[in-house]
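Morning - phosphoenolpyruvate inputs below, output right after.
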Amino acid sequence: MDILRIHGGTPLNGETHVYGAKNAALPILAATVMVSGTSVIEDVPDLEDVRVMMQILERLGARVRWSAPGTIEVDASTINKTDVPAELMQRMRSSIFLMGPMLARFGEVTLSKPGGCVIGQRPIDYHLHGMRQLGAKIDEQHGYIRCTTRRLVGTSITLDFPSVGATENLMMAAALADGVTVIENAAREPEVADLAQFLLATGATIDGAGEDTVVVRGCSNLHGSAYRIVPDRIVTGTLLLAAAATHGEITLHGAQSGHLGAILQKLRDTGVRVDVDRDIITVKCEQHPRAVDFRTAPFPGFPTDLQAPFMALLTTANGTGVIHESVFEARFKHVDELKRMGADIAVDLRTAVVRGVQSLSGARVVASDLRAGAALLVAGLMADGVTEVEGVHHIDRGYQSIERHLQTLGARIERVSNQVPV
Ligand SMILES: CC(=O)N[C@H]1[C@@H](OP(=O)(O)OP(=O)(O)OC[C@H]2O[C@@H](n3ccc(=O)[nH]c3=O)[C@H](O)[C@@H]2O)O[C@H](CO)[C@@H](O)[C@@H]1O
Ligand SMILES: C=C(OP(=O)(O)O)C(=O)O
């Protein structure tokens, strides 16, 4: 087992680049199964989830390889299986993205319940309901989900909640369906728009992705293309928060500030200085941050994936901040670990009240999920003394070589292998 050992108290300083977004790369890699010809996907982060997606594609029969650092080539013409192995399904939430594309191209797919961060129940009922509306037959038995169709037919689908995954899955299925599909109350996250851009590059016809009504005109064939993934707004936000929390100054290149409106505004509200110049964001913390309140919400609201790292910043802010988590019902698992480090946080259902303390003190803590892990890294970087973070495999699902990335910004952090859990 790996741990991350952090000697806290050193301000982050320096410059670095932001890499492509996990949450865009994963559905786009899944979408390559619909393409006749080779897809070349650039700026793909080397993450555990990306490797699992590559394994799934390989097990289905596709030819998949890293053709250069950050570039994955997929030739899906050799796919000869339609069962997604259950052990790979369980490794991440994004395995569910095989449903729409496989169904659209082969008329059948067998999956099981996806894994991913345990931050709530995370049902897949919107995905299943939408696929049925498009004409799929779905049998759920013994933990397997068997989806079949003679042909998918475009229709009108209204989501009960703007689910990112359901919007993406249905958009992919609709791209090869007969006729027009209209998805209402669609998720507006930038990763939805990025998936649509990839599909457009392959010849699909999609209007409105990134808005709340998406219109997909089905076509009979998608062709190979090269596509560059959008920068990761959650990694960008995490680094900005880590810099602010350590009272440092960093500059991020290749960032998309337009995707970070809510988080940049909240950071400014704490008194942190944020400067944006095209794709460059600089953050500088000149004074002790003051507490702010926020509630998470679908895009363009405050992203739930940055709730935990922002909470870490608030633990030592001046005053009391109130956080409401409206997207997932169980996304406060980092709270007990932050409290072990000296934070003063009270939780009532989906609301956390964070009273700023003077300082955090390093401790051995456990990351229960990806962004909880990010919060503990931020906390460890700002704490007095040494923090050791267990559960690093969660962090590796979403942050590429996190210790090396933070080291380039002056952090005193190392990965220690073969540790016995306490
Ligand atoms: C790989 C990926 O892109 N993951 C992101 C995606 O997850 P994911 O696509 O799983 O998140 P959703 O937007 O679907 O989930 C939002 C809410 O809808 C509920 N829901 C969702 C689907 C469904 O069929 N039924 C249902 O009830 C969920 O339980 C949750 O409460 O968006 C989340 C919300 O921005 C982010 O935190 C995740 O990082
Ligand atoms: C919740 C997340 O990921 P996933 O949906 O892949 O579990 C995340 O990226 O914070």
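Note: The longest strand covers residues 63-68.

O.
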